[in-house]
Amino acid sequence: MNKKALLEYALFARKELETQIALSLNKLGIYKDHITKANVVGDFTIIEGTQETFPKRVYELRKSIVENEFHLKNQKFDNVVEEFAYTWFNRIVAIRFMEVHDYFPHGFRVLTSRDGAYEPEIMKNLPYVLEELDLKESVIRSLKEQNKTEELYRYVLFKQCNRLSKVFPDLFSKGEEYLELLLPNNLLSQDSIIRKLESIPEEDFLNDVEIVGWLYQFYNSVKKDEVFASKEVITKDTLPAVTQLFTPDWIVRYMAENSVGRLWLESYPNSSLRSDLKYYVDDAKQDDETNKKLEEIKYKNVDPEKIKVIEPCSGSGHILVYVFDLLFKMYLEKGYNSKDIPSLILKNNLYGLDIDKRAAQLAQFSLIMKARSIDNRFFNEDRFVRPRVFEIIDSKLLKETNYHESMKSLHFSEESIKMVDFLYDIFENAKIIGSLLKIPARDYSGLMDDIKRCRDLESPNLLEYSFYHAGIDCIKYLVKVAMTLSRKYDVMITNPPYCNTGNIELICKEYAIEKYPKSKTDMYAMFMDTDFVKKNGFLSMINMHAWMFLTSFTKLREQLTSDNLLINLLHLGPRAFEAISGEVVQTCSFVFRNTKSIPNYLTTFYRLVEIKSEEGKKIVF
Question: What's the CA gap between 458 and 320, in Å, rounded?
């Protein structure tokens, strides 16, 4: 993979997108320090301060930007620009991945042309995609007559995005029609973000979906550098960029093979899967008494449909995708039809969480691409399963929709209102606390029944309208996230954020002190202190190595070694990430088992600190 080309493109795309989107907002009368008025006059939209006129429909689209982004989300101009830029970057990368793999039902490339022609393939074949993309012949004819090729392409591209919203409802949200106004100009020119994308070798897109994660990390690197340079308190808006660190592929494999793979091999010692596990560490030789105790807690006769795996800091999905590969082989070994397996894995096995909206979208995309690579009918309605990867959101929208009063007037029960009060309180600061939220298991069936009754029988008045349409959807989403956070899993596997709580918002620091007294000084240690894993399940992580030495983690170490078995540990030292990302982080990677300590149990350790490169560390295996 040509990471230099990925970095150069990501940095160019960020600058270009943010510049173009800021200009597009200015063109609509939306500026950094003020927003001008707009009116409809006949069939046109007139925006104060500009001589240009716009079609009538632009008025409502512009209004949506102002109300949704600047009022409802209470964002500043630079934040809105950044969010829209992220959106278009992710969309363009996703479309490029799909066209290179020939995943579009219509069979045409949307950004480029296989014969190197100036126009993308789809532009030469519009008659064949009219119905699929819901294109209007009158619009196409009008734009062609005016020689507005660029505008026609923007129209087609946006329609393609709308079509993709059926499979990727977050990444290509159809509800954000106003994004059409913010597509960069001159998309077909030689120096556009689309043309520059061709500088990345096509084989890099063909080889692995992990290219999506690398591009996203490189795109984020600008903000990461800015936050570090400013030395400001880390907030919910800056935490994702500051803590994102793409996990090297071999470490992902080590973590997955020694947790998910170990679970399988315990159950089926003669499994052919063992030969595929390059980074699997065999158990140390134990005495007879220890072996007897281990036999009592090992997994036996595992049904692949019952395995539950959580990645609570999923990023763009690198770990989840590799676990998908392992699970696929397990299903095959049990005689399942290969085409049926992707849907079963996404339905039964994998769960992901992240505070970063764009990363969560890319994780979903990566898993869907993995499924589609196996099942060419996966996009069909009867086979498609949406990945259970969720952005962790806060509950402020509920307050803005006046949920308490609206629920009373819409005849929700007292129990349902109390349940939503619980959700509101616990998710109030979720964007900074993230997957570290400790949520007790609750029965939400009564609340969900009440929501169905409301939707079926109630008619909201003007005061209830916002809650009825936005608030209820927010409640349903928070219930999904709450259930994911409170469920128990066979395996938790992650590369958590490395963030000292002394540098973070006060509310997160206070939460750490209250809920994580033994690990409160850093988020990576707090993730070792979570309770996602069921009894006898596995916790597999890579994190900073300081927890093994510092006196501030003494109680955490005592707890970990008392309540768990340390199966194996790689002391990686300072070179696990450096060769790839330029960052020097002292790390270790390990697998714990959630079972009481066995006195004479022997852990396997690998000390790789002195080895000076990532490649050298891999050779050990």
Answer: 41
Contact 499, 243 (CB under 8 A): yes
Tokens at residue 421, please? 């009060």
Give the three-class secondary structure for 528. Answer: helix
Q: pLDDT tens, 339-392?
A: 999 999 999 999 999 999 989 999 999 999 999 999 999 999 899 999 999 999
Measure the CA dihedral 285/288/292/297, to 10°.
-20
Question: CA nearest 309: which of 441, 435, 489?
Answer: 489
Are the C-beta atoms of 479 and 423 separated by less than 8 Å?
Answer: yes
Residue 191 in contact with residue 185, Cβ under 8 Å? Answer: no
Q: Is 270 exposed, middle or buried (0-12, 13-18, 19+ CB in 10 A)?
A: exposed
Residues 6+ apart with CB under 8 A from 175: none
Each residue of 423-468: pLDDT tens digit?
999 999 999 999 999 999 999 999 999 999 999 999 999 999 999 9
Residue 54 host element (H or E): strand 53-55
Q: Could you tell me how far CA 179 lies from the centroid of its own chain?
A: 21
Task: Using the predicted structure, report yes or no on whether residue 307 has a pLDDT greater than 80.
Answer: yes
Greater confidence (215 vs 235) lies with: 215
What is the reported pTM?
0.92
DSSP string, 250-281: HHHHHHHHTTHHHHHHHH-TT-GGGGG-TT--
Q: Rounded CA gap, 460 and 401, in Å? A: 13
CA dist 562 and 413 (Å) reads 45
**Tokens describing residue 308:** 């539950």
Of 276, 360, 255, give the one whose Cα is nearest residue 570.
Answer: 255
